[in-house]
Amino acid sequence: MPGEPVLLTDDTAGVRTLTLNRPRRKNAIDHELWLTLADALRHSATDRSVRAVVITGAGGAFCSGADISAPDNSHPVYRMRELTDVALLLHELPVPTVAKVRGVAVGAGWNLALGCDLVVASPQARFSQIFAQRGLSLDLGGSWLLPKLVGLQQAKRLALLAETIDAAHARELGLVTWVVPDDEIDTYVSDLAARLASGPPIALAQTKALLNAGAGRTLREALAGEAAAQGLNFATADAPEAFAAFAEKREAQFTGRWTVHRPTMRGRDDSENTRGADV
Questions:
Q1: Which residue in 116, 128, 133, 190 has a CA-CA distance of 20 to 30 Å to 52?
Q2: What domain range includes position 206?
Q3: Model-level pTM?
């Protein structure tokens, strides 16, 4: 409908759900939606109340890719920057991300889903790297994502033939994390996102970054990155909280709060200088 926002945002208990809202175009992403989605991801990266992000589509489809039918006289270089911004923001987002896929996820739409950390699809979902059928090559990170997820040969198969595959086959290839019945997928994703949002935020952010970088690192570099990350984790209240919760047989309450001992200041009681810093 005219005047409706192209992106819907819902915040519930630390979970931000971003819903592509162009159902008449099967949520194809035009100039306005690219910019709006980039702004939403950028804001989610700096909003400490956001502990997990879910991306989905309205009207029974996830995303039919970039809207190539939309009039746009800008230079292709500028148009591609819009895609690049979204791909990088999604990849570098310091919170876990989940794609909830119903219906079609094709072209840039499929790569938007693959850019998320986890993908939950209904059995009716359909996927295609449709670019070759449009006389185009891969974009939105597909040339980087696919070989890492399925290996070079299967990546070439999917990209060169532009086949459409169902959710079960995507699951077999490792391109979908879970296939869930359509009438259960909303509850499943809500529960999954809540579990992610309740995790230790600093540790999860660092784990995500380590895994994203790991494929391009040597073992020595990966170990150095892990050691640096653990140092930051031990400077939060979350590790002691996890140990205490285990000992007390209760659920841990993670906050990501940074806890350090401040240096003693002359003339002050030491007790005033050893409180945890909440940053």
A1: 128
A2: 201-273
A3: 0.89
